[in-house]
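User: Predict the complex with heme C.
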Amino acid sequence: MNRLMVAAAVLAAATITACASDNDTVSEGVERGGELYQANCASCHGADLAGAPDWKTPNEDGSYPPPPHDSSGHTWHHPDRVLIEIIRDGSDFPQSRMPAFGDRLTQEDIEAILEFIKTSWGPQEKAYQNQITEQDQARP
Ligand code: HEC
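Assistant: Here is the predicted structure with heme C placed in the model:
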């Protein structure tokens, strides 16, 4: 195989893998979202989205350690609107250490980060979160 054919084969394999795990093809948004995540979120939520080890145990001041964003966390329990609001405006948890990013990230940036986070969810988490997002959007 010449180089071009190898590149084409790799690309085809990547596309098939992407389609197998998600209906969306891997978009530029996911890539950008990944970079933005590493720059803004990974210091607390972990480069691998695994969160803090004891994230369910409150700190002494009543605040909580950063939770994971992968399937083991509860990020996928919230519809898109709520997640975007938490990232933009911060969280309303008592003593929350989650910063508000509204002055640093655009709506587009936040949506790209969410897209990236969603690539770490399994099919069930994805389907559930999709459903609650649709229900949330259908609310008057
Ligand atoms: C300084 C540490 C810190 C940084 C940086 C940070 N977070 Fe958080 N985040 C937290 C903490 C702590 C919580 C736990 C809930 C709370 O205290 O509000 C949290 C909670 C969240 C939640 C709610 C999760 C849930 O299941 O309810 C989301 C979504 C979230 N963060 C997204 C992000 C994103 C996206 C970024 C980067 C743009 C980011 N966070 C950066 C500390 C951080």
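Helices lie at 3-21, 28-40, 42-45, 80-89, 107-118, 123-138.
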